[in-house]
Amino acid sequence: MTHVLNWQLGRPMEYPYAGAYPNRQFAFVFNTNRCLGCQTCTMACKSTWTFGKGQEAMWWANVETKPYGGYPRQWDARLLEMLDEADPERIGWRDAEADGFGPYGLYDGKTIFEAARARSAKGPQVALGYLPADEDWHAPNLYEDVPVGPGGVSGILHREGESLPVHRTWFFYLARICNHCSYPACLAACPRKAIYKRPEDGVVLIDQERCRGYRKCVEACPYKKSMYRGTTRVSEKCIACFPRLEGRDPDAGGRPTETRCMSACIGQIRLQGLVGIGKDGEWKEDRKNPIYYLVKVAKVALPLYPQFGTQPNGYYIPPRWVPRDYLVQMFGPGVGHAVEAYLRPDRELLAVLQLFRKSNRIIFRYEIEPGPKVWETERADGKFELYDDTVIAFGEDGKELFRTKVEEPIYVRPAKHLNSI
Q: Do 144 and 175 touch, CB atoms closer than 8 A?
């Protein structure tokens, strides 16, 4: 084991390989507050990549209902339980203000790599993990739309008496794809060295000519996004639609384009980008890159289960109505700030949030043109003012992709027809 820098944990951690980082990294932000659970992203991916024989139970992109849903079944609850057993002291996160370079504080607990070494007597493992049973893969929509009620009783939905900041009865949709981690557990565990990160964009791929179907990647991936295909006896996974990243989509005009699941999103919950990576694996400062801004500046988007230690490159704006302790377990101690920032967005954040799903082109830079004040109100925390600013998106070549306003226009249809609304 070597030591690599994990900026999400605020410390170095153990990893089987020395740090080797791409020039820039594929990353994305999902806004869970907007997700409709419509599964359009799921079917866009399915119809593009996993429609063949032997892929019936493969869902590279899926949307699961938390807290009960999961694909495969209870993937996160099982691994969290294994981590607790391997780390009985459960040190976990220190105060977010603790010393360290991490934006979320310092994580003193064991990662899946460190926990695997601690329990090596139970069998050789590079990363703590397990192989799901076949039946765990068969129900991707299990417990869809099932809320948790008083006392943890499921299936009870109270339509009255609910109010922010936390609802008594709640659920939320968690859209997931491969996180294309900076320290992939699948890569670390593969005995054939068939898994690699592309140096140009950090996308994690499986060389299917080298793969022999040992399923060590399936066992090790904490997010269970590496999947075994029985007909070919090799593993497959999300490839981040890399031909689209390269601008090879027929409609792209040679410019980088968002993945299929991103571009099909009806709820406009997704924003995808590429961030520059330094020699130590840290993100290069790029203040006007919208992904960099949301993660590093506004700190409104958080990694999914950062305590696993893989440094995932998928980030989530947490749902604002869910109990905070549940969200902290899932997204780390930055939840409080992220939720408050989203509930009370400043002028720049409100403008950047308008960039989500306005184009299928990847945004590399944004600028904001100030607009007039169009509304103000008094809230418990003070005055809130809304400005109709214009946010402008630019592509990799520096050319303008589109511009949009904070206040969306309203069109009133004339009542000329019987079916007019």
A: no
User: Domain map of the chain by residue range?
Assistant: 2-347
CB atoms within 10 A of CB 300: 25
Residue with tokens 């709640």: 170
Q: Which residues contact 47 (CB under 8 A, 6 or more apart)?
A: none
HEC-encoded secondary structure of 207-271:
CCCCCCCCCHHHHHCCCCCEEEECCCCEEEECCCCHHHHCCCCCCCCCCCECCHHHHCCCCCCEE
Q: What is the DSSP letter of 397?
A: T
> Within 13 Å and on the Cβ side, how many CA atoms surround 112?
30
pLDDT digits (tens, 9 = 90+) for 36-80: 999 999 999 999 999 999 999 999 999 999 999 999 999 999 999
Per 3-state DSSP, the chain is made up of helix, strand and coil in percentages (nearest 5) of 20, 20, 55
pLDDT at site 211: 97
The answer to whether the CB of 235 falls within 8 A of the CB of 204 is no
Q: How far apart are the first and last CA of the chain?
A: 65
* Rounded to 5°, angle at Cα 268 from 199 and 406: 105
Report the topology of domain 2-347.
Alpha-Beta Plaits (3.30.70)
Distance (Å, rounded) from C-alpha 350 to C-alpha 353? 5
pLDDT of residue 152: 78
Distance CA 132, CA 130 (A): 6
Residue 345's nearest CA partner among 393, 373, 387, 303 is 387
Helix axes 324-331, 335-343, angle to 10 degrees: 110
Distance, in Å, from the CA atom of 127 to the CA atom of 189, rounded to the nearest integer, reads 7
Q: Is the dihedral of CA 343, 348, 349, 350 positive or negative?
A: positive
Tell me how far apart the alpha carbons of residues 355 and 390 are, in angstroms, rounded to a whole number: 11
Specify the pairing of strand 365-369 against strand 390-394: antiparallel
Phi and psi torsions of 103, nearest 5°? -70, -15
Collapsed DSSP state (helix, strand, coil) of residue 156: coil
How far is it, in rounded angstroms, from Cα 25 to Cα 179?
A: 11
- The pLDDT tens digits of the residues spanning 109-135 come to 999 999 998 765 556 789 999 999 999
- Pairwise CA distance, residues 396 & 300, whole Å: 24
Pick from 24, 13, 18, 14: nearest CA to 283: 24
